[in-house]
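(Structure overview)
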Amino acid sequence: QVQLVESGGGLVQAGGSLRLPCTVSGRTFSSTGMGWFRHAPGKEREFVATFSRSGGTTYYADSVKGRFTISRDNAKNTVYLQMNSLKPEDTAVYYCAARARGASTDREKYTDWGQGTQVTVSS
């Protein structure tokens, strides 16, 4: 059974940074497509970032491009979301997700999800 565990969330002031790790178990990590999504109150869960299984190609939502970076460490079975220049509108629960195939921006294509970690950005 695949298990994803996110951490690293918290309260940060606008302009600050956070790094969210997500550790994956129960699946061959190097062949797993990974993505980050977020869910803010009153909104649908939205795509944030994803990359190809090799990590060579990355995709970002326009709202985070240039501020967020997704990366992976296959030796540690971990994917990271580095978030810089945070804004109050980045406040949400952040989820990592996994799928058996490559990168996708479509949340419906992901089969496994973590429990989420809360990120709150104060103005």
